[in-house]
Amino acid sequence: MSIPNLPCRCMFLTTVLLGGLYVATSSPFEAVAGNQPNCTKNLASAARQEPQLPTEAITRMTAYFEDRRSSRYMEQNCVAATYPGWETLPLKECTYSVKGAHDPVKKTAKVIMLNAEPEQLARWVVSTCIEVVGNAGNKCTKAIGRQIMEQSGAQFPIAGIVFEDILPANGKFEVFAFRNGVTVRVNGVTHLGTAQPSAAEIEKSLHSEVTSTFKFARIQSTTREQYLANGGTLSVAGNAWNEVNRDLYKAAWGQNRNEMMVAWAKANKPLLQ
Fold first, then answer.
1. Each residue of 219-232: pLDDT tens digit?
2. What is the extent of the structural domain holding 23?
3. pTM of the prediction?
4. Please, how many CA atoms are within 13 Å of residue 147, restricted to the half-sphere of its CB?
5. Neighbours of 9 (CB within 10 A)
6. Whole-angstrom Cα distance, residue 107 to residue 82?
7. Is 181 found in the same domain as 158?
8. What single-letter DSSP state applies at residue 70?
């Protein structure tokens, strides 16, 4: 039986009607498909597309993050930037100032960031909830949203100084150097310093050697242990951890799924149900 030269649209519909199975074969059909140079490519592309996320949940969580945009306190005086390992992505270098209740004067530093917009954050959260608990209900999405805001303000610092008043929380902002969304120690930068960083320290925070990498990976503070428990196979020893976070954040950029967020959510599943 000869098979007619089906147009690509008909081949796609046939594939769907047959249960969505499209298999490469050496049968006569392959020869026909070979005369349709774009069909295999288009079908493969369709198969790779991520499932559509529920509109109501996306709208709800987009509004959630939009309403909290002011938490991005480092987004001041920002200009386009580049950084090794982050080529082609829309980075920003921001020169920002903060003043704690007991800081005598404002402190200023620079940081390079890649901060997701509210709609992208919403897609990550909704997709994570569907994967981990099977739905995108309020309890799960708000719990992950709250974790993101409390841990990072939805800011992803690639390099530079992040001022935080946490160790101790005494009204004075401390210096934390960052690489690829993780706190690090950098030669020439005073970790937990409370003085205004010098121009040399600010420059070193951006480009000098990292000597150690701490525990929590932004934007939701995933740990090495959570990543490995979720099936992660890359080395997370020492400074490799911040590189893993870099690569997985880049992989999630523009996509629905964020592997590091899934890892955190699976480790904290009881909080989401």
1. 999 999 999 999 99
2. 8-48
3. 0.82
4. 23
5. 10
6. 24
7. yes
8. G
